[in-house]
Automatic annotation (TrEMBL):
Alphabetized UniProt keyword annotations: ATP-binding, Kinase, Magnesium, Metal-binding, Nucleotide-binding, Pyridine nucleotide biosynthesis, Transferase
Organism: Nothoprocta pentlandii
Gene Ontology cellular-component terms listed: cytosol
Family listed: Belongs to the uridine kinase family. NRK subfamily.
Record flagged with keyword Ubl conjugation: no
Protein's name in the database: NRK1 kinase
Domain of life according to the entry: Eukaryota
Pathway: Cofactor biosynthesis; NAD(+) biosynthesis
Entry's Gene Ontology molecular function annotations: ATP binding; metal ion binding; nicotinate riboside kinase activity; ribosylnicotinamide kinase activity
Length: 192
């Protein structure tokens, strides 16, 4: 969901996980001139066609083929339950975005899937506090953003499995703890 806390959560996880990188879907938006406009005059940014998804997949696969190595561990990482002495061969890529699980070429790549949700009122309130380029036009949230979120969420619920739904109204530290602990468990399983 837009303004659900995806980027904030990803950046906090990056600080406490070893050798962690982030790829943001927002970095793959097409220029405004290439984004379609509907009959109401709304730029259709909340659809897959507004993004260079093939380029995103290439970027992810490139990282997977040669994960960047960083031997520098943050102070926070050194205090976590992941033992820093055993992290040399751990590489974690967080891919963060709003239309990730609806793009079939990405579905084979995920080890874990998290989906942040917000109720309509909270999402609209948060969206109204953000500044976008180009700016949201009047009625854009109700006329395009929210309907597209509901459409893609419904598709996800019908087609994707192993998705962990997270309540975006929960405190950030609670969400961070939940996802971090889940990742630690996954890493432990992979090492066994």
């Amino acid at each position: 969901v837009t303004n659900g806390g995806k980027t904030t959560l990803a950046k906090k996880l990056q600080k406490i996980l070893p050798n962690c990188a982030i790829i943001c879907q927002d970095d793959f938006f097409k220029p405004e001139s290439e984004v379609e406009t509907d009959q109401r005059g709304f730029k259709l940014y909340d659809v897959l066609d507004a993004l260079y998804m093939d380029e995103m997949v290439k970027c992810i696969r490139s990282w997977m083929n040669n994960p960047p190595y960083s031997s520098v561990l943050t102070e926070e990482t050194q205090t976590t339950c992941i033992n820093p002495k055993n992290t040399e061969d751990i590489y974690i890529l967080i891919v963060e975005g709003f239309l990730l699980y609806n793009y079939e070429p990405l579905n084979e790549l995920w080890d874990r899937r998290y989906f942040l949700t917000l109720p309509y009122e909270e999402c609209k309130r948060r969206r109204s506090t953000r500044v976008y380029q180009p700016a949201d036009t009047p009625g854009y949230f109700d006329g395009h953003v929210w309907p597209m979120y509901l459409k893609y969420k419904n598709e996800l619920e019908e087609n994707a499995s192993n998705v962990v739904y997270l309540d975006g109204t929960k405190p950030q530290e609670e969400l961070l703890s939940h996802v971090y602990n889940d990742i630690v468990q996954e890493l432990t399983k992979q090492r066994e």
